[in-house]
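Would you mind writing out a protein's amino acid sequence and the numbers that encode its backbone to help me picture the idea?
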Amino acid sequence: MGTTGAMAGRHIRVRGLVQGVGFRPHVWRLAQALDIAGDVANDGDGVIIHAWGAPAALDRFQDRLRGEAPPLARIDAIEVAPHGGPPPGGFIIAASVAGTARTGIVPDAATCPACRAELFDPADRRRGYAFGNCTHCGPRLSIVSAIPYDRANTAMAAFPMCPACAAEYADPADRRFHAQPTACPACGPRLWLEPAPVAGTDPLDAAAALLRAGGIVAVKGIGGFHLVCDATSSTTVMELRRRKARDAKPFAVMARSVDEIGRYCRLDDATCALLQSPAAPIVLLARRPDGAPLPDGLAPGQDHLGVMLPYTPLHHLLMARMDGPLVMTSGNRSDEPQVISNEDARGRLAGLADAWLMHDRAILNRLDDSVVAATRGAPVILRRARGYAPAPLPLPPGFDGLPPTLAMGGELKATFCLLRDGQAILSQHIGDLENAAALDDYGAMLRLYRELFDFTPAVVAVDAHPDYLSTTLGAALARECGARLVRVGHHHAHMAACLADAGIGVGDGGEGAFGLILDGLGLGGDGTLWGGEILRGGYHGVTRAAHIAPAALAGGAAAMREPWRNLVAQLRLAFGDAWRTRAAPVRHHLPPDAQVAVLERMLETGTNTPPCSSAGRLFDAVAAALGIHPARIGHEAQAAMALEALARPHMAAARSYPVALGGGDPVVIGWLPMWEALLADLRVGEAPGLVAARFHLGFAEAMASAAARLGAGIGTIVALSGGVLQNRIILHELQARLRAVGCRPVTHARVPANDGGLALGQAVLAALGTSIPTPAACTSRPKAR
């Protein structure tokens, strides 16, 4: 080390995702290489470094802190100040320091290449061990109970380390230094199969043999149980559907490698990168028409398949024993959350699974698999959970110095969001709060996040719908904390979430923006149900500039399950009393006359038929006209997803259907010309796929034209949000048309466009003080779908 006189001292604060990722040993190794003395420690704000060395060496040290950071680290800020006092001898890693928790917990991460290599290395002591990990991979949020992220605050506290693991854990030069979940066969979690196989049989061998024979196995993963079966067997796939009472919702598939996935689906560099990322999400991929065959029952009516790679050692070891891909779907009964405990798995999955592949490492926090699509090379998150949550999201300029804000989200695809210090912490996907187990999970996760991040809100944001369970819980929490309760408009929250997700700050043109917000429905500012909106404004307020012509939500919530009801409502809106005559080409998709007559009387009298400008219900109506699940859908957006898949092959040859743009304020987008053209096409026997394509093009053209008429032009920011924007045809066509007139369309990248991202928008609006008046009461207020 240089002479004392040539040395300087620096106090270096590193903020971001820097705990549990090997950041302290990274600092230690740099210090050794650059002849720097001092210490490094974790605390509630991240990592704190005291460093003494030659000024040039300290400069290099700071540069390399960021430039060579561990793979799971994310540095948000490095703050440097002079540090006095005499330099110590050498550099040490100090114990964690307690304090207010402001640093992030990194997400659970897929098995890294080094740990994967050990699994199959005959000379390695972890060969074949299902729970190997290091600082670059393994469980994080799923096993943590408190911060700092030390072993005592995780599920691994139950497994004292053996001498060999303890030596690795204590060695800063080892990649397992302070890897909190580290373990080996001598001291870590163990794996077993129930019912027990023949004595001496490896549980993985026995599970694989059962799967090859057509069995269904409940497998305990990193964030919950999966139900697993042979994805190449149509008989087994349909048996799993029968047992789960899941008629049509797609099953996810796990394959051994990218090459194996390429046998079935189209791949490019972007999707390969997503599949192989530390998040290891389910990625929606187009099926190859010339690909190896897989059962249609994996994703009925869909042209895409959700696939993923093994992301735990257990998965790698199981897949190595198989000859092809496996179904890997949530271990639950329909509409329930994924089970996470061995006891619940034995009870809740009885009758669904033939055997249980289990272990004794507790899952403290449920994590569903994340779902991602790649649209034109850009990732689009559809469900944000394992691998992404709870990584804090840095917000754009204008969100520093705001009061700590808790946003409660919606009721479907529920999440909540903590906003503080210019960052948003969005929870993992939790599910439908109308399910009692999901509601319990929501409450448990909210308590955990508040404890982990030492968070007490000054503001609580809720959806304007008074009957959402999240709204009720938020009001109670605001009273408990003495926080200000802010009710946020549903579609304004969607717009704000998109703007914030896209990095549009408060002063970046976001106040003169437009929002094309297309979803199933949400309560509007006038007390009616909205869902096909063009909003104008920004973070500090919006006006409703245009909307889809409201049609009756015939039967209230029943219309969200039975698409034929929306078809009748749309045709009656378009053609009045003459709708039955005009509906001849689609009459065979409607129920018997007596049932339709009951619905007509409801429409005539206004009984349980609130008006709704929903884009989602319009898509359901068109799907029903084409005979796509007209009677009933088995899961949300089933009919719309099938309509999109039907349209995709015909897009290049299609022309758009016409629409009617009204001249009022707000502009009303009417569908009479579209229905006339669509019914004429069906009358002459036009191909249903071409009809579906023409509808998609007409819809996109209508929304873009309406925005242009309202003044959206060169340089105008247009936020595209809402669940309908998960339709990749609509998303692409809207972007293309808006760009053609000079607009700047912005989309979601880090949070879902659906209600899973709603809490982010609520949080930024409420933190800024933006709210809406309590909406006027309406006769019937179904909840969003």
